[in-house]
TrEMBL record:
Keywords for the protein's UniProt record, in alphabetical order: Coiled coil
Protein name, entry field: CCDC93 coiled-coil domain-containing protein
BP terms from Gene Ontology: Golgi to plasma membrane transport
Keyword field contains Coiled coil: yes
Family: Belongs to the CCDC93 family.
Any one Pfam family match given in the protein's UniProt record, by short name: CCDC93_CC
Domain CCDC93 coiled-coil: 123-324
Superkingdom of this protein's organism: Eukaryota
UniProt domain CCDC93 N-terminal: residue ranges: 7-116
InterPro entries to which the protein is assigned, alphabetical: CCDC93, CCDC93_CC, CCDC93_N
UniProt keyword annotation of RNA-binding present: no
Organism field: Lithocarpus litseifolius
Length: 338
């Protein structure tokens, strides 16, 4: 007997693994009998396949199915449900109770494949929808002039690279000038050490310093101008919106448009309702006036033939007014339903 139970448990494990792979958590609960786990798993799979098709974010919870949909499946029986679904494998309730794994396994495998196929189809459809939305968004961005902004951005980037290249070429010239000035300083120091005339030395020093100072000032001005141009180009690059910013702006404008359209629809509905109610109010006031007039003249009208004729005319007027109300009422109901 123990050997039979061990073989049954080992044959039952692949079935429970299949049920667990599609989300049936009760498959591994040891406090529930094996037959109950199998019947509950089959009912759960049948309910999942019979639904509109679970998505990755809407896979049916086993507890919800056990409380709601499994009850409905239990009424008609798992066997009848499988037959109505067109299952190619036959399964009887007695086979579930006796844990006939050879009969249960192909049925569970067929149901699990149906669930996985449904999940795969939904995933492909979601991916296709996302690709279509991205394509439409790119077309709208290109149509609204994003390509012009990108061309401007590329032009500014090329200008920035050109300025950086000029700066890198200017630095070696500065190094050469620095070496020349250092050589002049060494030469002057040598002349001072040899004892040359102070006046001639001072004049020579002044002449040797004037030209380098002019070159240095000119180089500083040129460097400041180039640095200013680089800063201006960087500022222009920062002002150009990126692709993600353009997408965000487009999304916000779409949301604002939808909100405005909803408010406009509500406003039109309120105006239509108000106008319909106003017309009905006027008609009801007219009817009230006619009824009051008839009520005040009724006693006098029935005593004479002329009075009765006048009463008949008043009643005909009421009938015409009532017909107008009948015509207006459908319009009023339509305005309220819009």
């Amino acid at each position: 007997m123990a050997e039979f139970q061990s073989e049954s448990a080992s044959s039952l494990d692949p079935i429970l693994d299949l049920l667990l792979s599609v989300g049936y958590a009760d498959a591994r609960k040891t406090d529930i009998s094996a037959s109950k786990r199998l019947s509950g798993g089959l009912a759960w799979c049948v309910a999942a396949v019979n639904s509109d098709g679970p998505r990755f974010d809407e896979v049916p919870d086993d507890e919800t199915l056990t409380q709601q949909e499994e009850i409905e499946i239990g009424k008609q029986g798992i066997e009848e449900s499988l037959r109505s679904m067109g299952c190619p494998h036959s399964l009887e309730d007695s086979q579930i109770e006796t844990l006939d794994c050879n009969a249960i396994f192909p049925v569970v495998q067929w149901l699990v494949n149906r669930i996985r196929l449904s999940l795969s189809d939904d995933e492909n459809q979601q991916e296709l929808n996302i690709m279509n939305q991205l394509k439409l968004l790119r077309e709208r961005i290109d149509k609204e002039g994003a390509s012009i902004a990108m061309q401007k951005l590329i032009s500014l980037m090329e200008s920035l690279k050109h300025l950086e290249r000029q700066e890198s070429e200017f630095q070696p010239n500065c190094n050469v000038t620095r070496l020349e000035l250092q050589a002049d300083v060494i030469e002057l120091e040598g002349r001072m050490a040899s004892g040359c005339d102070s006046k001639s030395l001072s004049h020579s020093l002044n002449q040797s310093f004037i030209e380098p100072l002019e070159k240095l000032n000119s180089a500083k001005k040129e460097l400041a101008a180039r640095y200013k141009a680089i800063v201006a180009v960087k500022r222009q690059l920062d002002d150009v919106p990126s692709q993600s910013e353009l997408i965000q702006y487009e999304r916000r404008f779409s949301e604002l448009y939808v909100h405005i359209q909803e408010k406009l629809r509500q406003t039109r509905k309120c105006y239509g309702t108000y106008n319909a109610l106003l017309e009905i109010k006027e008609l009801m006031l007219k009817e009230t006036s006619l009824l009051n007039s008839i009520s005040s003249q009724f006693q006098d009208a029935i005593t004479s033939t002329a009075g009765r004729m006048k009463l008949i005319d008043s009643i005909e007027g009421i009938v015409k007014s009532s017909q107008q109300v009948i015509v207006i009422s459908p319009l009023f109901n339509y305005e309220l339903q819009r």
